[in-house]
């Protein structure tokens, strides 16, 4: 009859004197132990594919902690994200040596050096904007050399949240020279798209699909505007949602059981009070 092995303590890695390296080495030792024959049954069952969704989940949790300006929680969530990366690399290494963490780290190190010639080479830049333009040109050259999609818009994951992807695509288009002279031009484009949405709305019975198209154009135009204003539309939307939820919950508490039976005027009066109160709370 097979019996489970008795638990054994972690063999602590030898200290290097560098707190960063020592902490990373300890995480890797733990991941190795979890995937060992006498490790955790759940961790041993995982595959690269099964762990992939955890990357997205942990990344979103880290972003939420950053938005809350909670340094302790941010450090913890970033740790969870690193753990998933380390575990995926360990699983891949055990799956016929597909890749390991050394290959992952070496690849990004070489990429960072290659894409920062103004830091590690002879190129000179005068601003972060110029550095970004150079970065995108280098990426385009890499894609051409690899015979992959060499478009200036390439490299933005399709699976990104739509507003975040709109921001990234607009940044690439602007970097390629497809841009207004200033933010006033970008704002005028938003107004133009809103007018087109209004026209589509007036004729929505004849062409309901056009309303959806024009609404999408409005959202895309606002993402472009965010680039000119130095604002992240994804973060701006998250912040707006947070404010909406705070105000709605405050309004909800004010009206209580009368919420669903209240008139719009009553709701708006409670909403304005909630808006004022939550603003003071900040």
Put the structure in a nutshell.
With 282 residues, this protein is an all-alpha fold.
Explain what this protein looks like in three dimensions:
The protein has 282 residues and is mostly helical. Among the domains are: 19-113, Orthogonal Bundle (Helix Hairpins), CATH 1.10.287.1080; 117-150; 236-281, no CATH class. 70% of the residues lie in helices and 0% in strands. The protein is built from 12 helices and no strands. It has helices at 19-34, 41-45, 48-67, 71-94, 101-114, 117-120, 128-145, 162-175, 183-202, 208-229, 233-255, 264-281. Helix 9 runs antiparallel to helix 10 (208-229). The longest helix has 24 residues, at 71-94. The N and C termini lie far apart (63 Å).
Features:
mainly alpha; 282 residues; Helix Hairpins
Rg, nearest Å: 25 Å
> Count of DSSP helices?
12
User: How many E strands?
Assistant: 0
The largest pleated sheet is described as:
none
Secondary structure elements and pairings:
Layout: H1 19-34, H2 41-45, H3 48-67, H4 71-94, H5 101-114, H6 117-120, H7 128-145, H8 162-175, H9 183-202, H10 208-229, H11 233-255, H12 264-281
Helix pairs in contact: 1-4, 3-4, 8-10, 9-10, 11-12
